[in-house]
Amino acid sequence: MSLAPDDVLPLFEETPLQCRLSQASQIEDALAQAGDCLVIGVYTQDVLSPSIRELDHRCQGLLTRLCAANELPAKVGECLMLHEPAGLGLSRLLLVGLGKPGAATLVDVRAAFTAAARRLLESRAADVSWLLSTPSALVLPPAALIDAAVQALRGAAYKFDHYRQTRETPPLARRANLLLETSIGAPEQAALERAVAIANGVDLAKDLGNTPCNICTPNFLARAAQRMAREEDLQVEVLGEQQIEKAGMHAFLAVARGSSEAPRLITLQHRGGVDGQAPIVLIGKGLTFDSGGISIKPATDMDHMKYDMGGAAAVLGAMRACAQLKLPINVVAVVPACENMPGGNALKPGEVVRSLSGQYIEIINTDAEGRLVLCDAMTYAQQWYQPAQMIDVATLTGACVIALGSVHSGLYANDEALAHALLRAGEDAGDSAWRMPLDAAYQKQIDSPVADMVNSAGRDAGSVTAACFLSRFTEVPWAHLDIAGTAWKGGREKSGTGRPVALLTQFLITQAQAQAESAASLSARAA
Ligand code: BES
Ligand code: MN
Ligand code: ZN
Questions:
Q1: Residues 248 and 357 reside in one and the same domain
Q2: Residue 473 to residues 1, 343, 358, 382, 467, Cα–Cα distance (Å)
Q3: pLDDT value of position 377
Q4: Lower CB count within 10 Å: N or C terminus of the chain?
Q5: What's the pLDDT score for residue 104?
Q6: Cβ-contact 391, 284 below 8 angstroms
Q7: DSSP 31-91
Q8: Under 8 Å between Cβ of 30 and 101
Q9: For residue 181, pLDDT beyond 90
Q10: Which residues line ligand 1 (CB under 6 A)?
């Protein structure tokens, strides 16, 4: 099948579910604005909290009776949909369990909201509202609740059906009204804006991941970046095969050699900071398909390797969010994009290739290709952009999936402050990472008898040795996120997840805030 790129780039065209904020200080305000369905969080034995009690009163003790019958959602994420409850004037009321009062963590709230949003979208209500706080829930700041609700709603509303003749029947929820009991000011609106920008970045990353690999080729990623640059006001540059060769990126080229799809080196720049300020550089592994090459993978689940551009997708998604938020910092995204294929011209085990850094790499396994494209992209980024910090994001190793599953992304770093900032951003954004070791003791596993290093050290600590390999190409504060287990999921719900767009964007937001604060304190001292 060959489809023209423009036929298959509907990625920016759909209007997503719209979220807005309204104040509802009293339960009657919430009821008046409820739309087709009102969502309310309830705590175990919480019938007596003031707003729930008020609601109960209005529906003649229905909630008290449900509680007595043990039918009120008790567990985190448990849902109960009530149709036309008497006395409320609502067509539907969705109760979602938040667990024990005061005990709900942000992780619980996100899980409960995700379950509620799914239930809500199944109900096919078009216009919904969501009471975000009951008095006993105010352990979490409104900004966190807003973000949790937006990510849950947008996550549940996401669909990818460009390649079905029979599309799902419309419409899933189109509008959501997030109700706060407290007044809504600039901080709450800013929180909503941040949450929506993150959701937009996540949607883009999912779309790129889900786009089939005969369509989402290296050139397709380049065109998507160019289109985004136009729409979001970013600078873009795309290098083709000859330019990559001329630059001396032989490790990257070695991977691309076996494929008839030409490689692309994509660079996007967001210049939101002052001129000359060192940028944060994000690097995303962009393998639009990884067959393993000559060290070919088994047939089972090889289709999953279309998600091997998950790092690139996440980096592009984070750039989109960063541009939409006009963050006052400089950020550069670098994406080495290619396919890893077998063929008469393909890279072979036993070859030695010269990386852009000058270090020689002995190829043991052509399926350890991610580190080969990344090392050259990292050297290139350091030569051209002198990053203040560099973060690479890659579906790098099956070993990381074994270690961490799909819960946390693996985080490696040569800089403590950067590591902690990323861990914190992940927790706040509901897109967590877990720190992994990078001590010198692992380095000897990748020493080579004939070159500076091997590209594959076998099964022991496979995710760590991949990170060790990358560490040999860094001269600046650097972190590596291994997202092999988090960027996509298999099975019947096979899909890109959009991770770790939220982590990256949250990190950029806090970096922008930190830079603004230090600039302010500098100018205060000068005055
Ligand atoms: N893209 C894969 C890693 C991967 C595996 C991502 C499973 C998602 C799910 C990567 O290029 C790869 O093949 N890594 C090898 C490295 C080995 C040959 C040292 C692996 O993990 O087996
Ligand atoms: Mn591979
Ligand atoms: Zn790969």
A1: yes
A2: 40, 29, 10, 9, 10
A3: 99
A4: C
A5: 82
A6: no
A7: HHT-TTEEEEEE-TT-TTSHHHHHHHHHTTTHHHHHHHTT-S--STT-EEEEES-TTTT-S
A8: no
A9: no
A10: 290, 308, 365, 367-370, 395-399, 401, 456, 462, 484
Ligand 1 nearest-atom number relative to CA 458: 19
* Statement to judge: residues 204 and 233 lie in one domain: yes
| Catalytic residue ranges | 297, 371
Same domain, 132 and 228: no
Structure tokens at 471: 């560490």
Q: How far is the CA of 73 from the centre of ligand 2 (A)?
A: 45
Q: Which of 82, 156, 147 is nearest to 110 (CA)?
A: 147
Residue-wise pLDDT for 216-251, tens only, equals: 999 999 999 999 999 999 999 999 999 999 999 999
* pLDDT tens-digit series, residues 333-392: 999 999 999 999 999 999 999 999 999 999 999 999 999 999 999 999 999 999 999 999
Query: What ligand 1 atom has the least distance to the C-alpha of 456?
Result: 19
Report the C-alpha gap between 396 and 323 in whole angstroms.
27
Do 251 and 127 lie in one domain? The reply is no
User: In this structure, what CATH number is given to the domain that contains residue 96?
Assistant: 3.40.220.10
* Amino acid symbol at 457: A
User: What end-to-end distance do the CA atoms of the chain give, in Å?
Assistant: 66
Cis amide linkage into residue 500, ω under 30° from 0: yes
Q: Tell whether 234 and 128 lie within a shared domain.
A: no
What letter represents residue 155's amino acid? Answer: G
Cα–Cα dist 178/130, whole Å: 5
pLDDT confidence band for 518 (50 / 70 / 90): confident
| Of 524 and 431, the one with more pLDDT | 431
Residues in the chain: 527
- The pair of three-digit structure tokens given for residue 349, joined into one six-digit string: 């085990």
Considering the domain architecture, whether residues 126 and 154 belong to the same structural domain is answered as yes
98 alpha carbon, distance to own chain's centre: 25
Confidence band of 8 (pLDDT split at 50, 70, 90): very low
Per-residue DSSP letters for 301-352? Answer: TGGGGGGGGHHHHHHHHHHHHHHHTT-SSEEEEEEEEEEE--STTS--TT-E
Q: Are 224 and 10 in contact (CB under 8 A)?
A: no
Stretch 33-62: mean pLDDT, rounded? 84
